[in-house]
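Quick question, first post here. What does this chain look like in 3D?
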Amino acid sequence: MCDKIKLMHEKGGGFMTKKTKYYILLGVNIFLVLALSIAVFGFVKRNNDYKDAKTEIKHKQTTIEQQTKTNKELEEKLKQSEDNKASIQAELDTTKQENESLESENAKLKTEITQLKAKKASAVSSANKPAVPQNPQPTGKVCYLTFDDGPSANTLKILEILNRYNVKATFFVVDNAQTKIEYVPQIHAAGHTIGLHTASHNYAKIYSSVDNYFADLNAISSKVNSLIGLDSKVLRFPGGSSNTTSRKYCQGIMSVIAPKVTEMGYTYFDWNVDSGDASGHLSSSKIASNVLQQARNKTSICVLMHDAVGKVTTVDALSAIIEGLINQGFYFAPLTTESHGYHHGIQN
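> Answer (accepted):
Ran it through. C-alpha cells below.
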C-alpha cells in the first residue's frame, strides 16, 4: 500500500496537484473575505444600531428634560393659580363685606329719602295753601260767571244772553291790541262787575318782576277808572294765583304779589269750575258739559270762561250753561270785594 502511494506521488506529484492547491487556497481566501465582510457588516450594523440607539436615547433625554421643564412650569403656574385663588377669595370676602355695608347704607338712604319725601310733601302742601286769608264761603247755591281776556267782538253777544236770563256776571278785562276796551262802559251799565286782569296780559312782561306786575295792573286800573269813573278792586291774575308759568320769568313772584295786592285793598279771585275753553277749540256742547259736570255736588261755584275774540263756542254754550245751572238750583251774582275768593294754592 505504501508503495502504491509512493508510486502515485512519484508519478503524480502527491495527493494534490498544483491546481488543487490553488483552488483550495482560493476557497480559503474567499471564505476569509466573506467572513471578514460579514464581520465588517456586523460591525457597521452594530455601530449604526449603537448610533441610532444613542440618538434615540438623546432624543428621549431631551424629551424627558422638556417634559420635566414643562411639568415644573405647570407646577409653578398651579402654585401661582392657587395663590391667585387665595387672593381672589380674599377680595371676594372683602367685596362681600363692602356689599353688606353698602346694603346697610342703602337701607339708611332709602329711609332718609322716604323721610325727605314726606317732608317735601308736607312743605308743598303748606306752600300750596292760599297765600292770604279770604272771605268765607257764601250760603246758598250761588254761581259767579266770570269772563277773562275781553272785551272783544263777542262781548255784546254775551251781554245780550246774560240780559235775556237776567244774570249778572264778572268781566276781568284787558287793554291790548286784541281787545275792545271801549265796551267797558256798556258792561258796567248792564250791572256787571268790571274786574282787572292786567293791561297787557303778557306773562313775560308782567311776571318778570314785582314792579312790572304792579305797573301793568296800575295801567288797566287807570284805564277802567277813566272809562267808568271808579277804581275796581276786583282782580284775577293771568293764569290764576296757582299758575306755574310765572316761575320761568321770576321764581317765587306769586308768593310776593298775592299778599301784596291784598294789602293794597284788592280782592283776587281764582275759580273752582273750569269750562276748559282756554285749551284749544272746544265745541259748545263740550264746554257746557264741562261746567255742568263740575258744578254738581258743589254748594257754590266760580266759573272760568273767556271773552277773547276766538271764543265763539263759549258764546254758543252760554245759554245751555245758564239753564243747566238753574236746573241744578243755582242763582247768579257778580263778584264783589266781599265775595269768597276761591283761591288756589301758590305753586311757584
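The first strand starts at residue 142 and ends at 150.
The mean pLDDT is 87.
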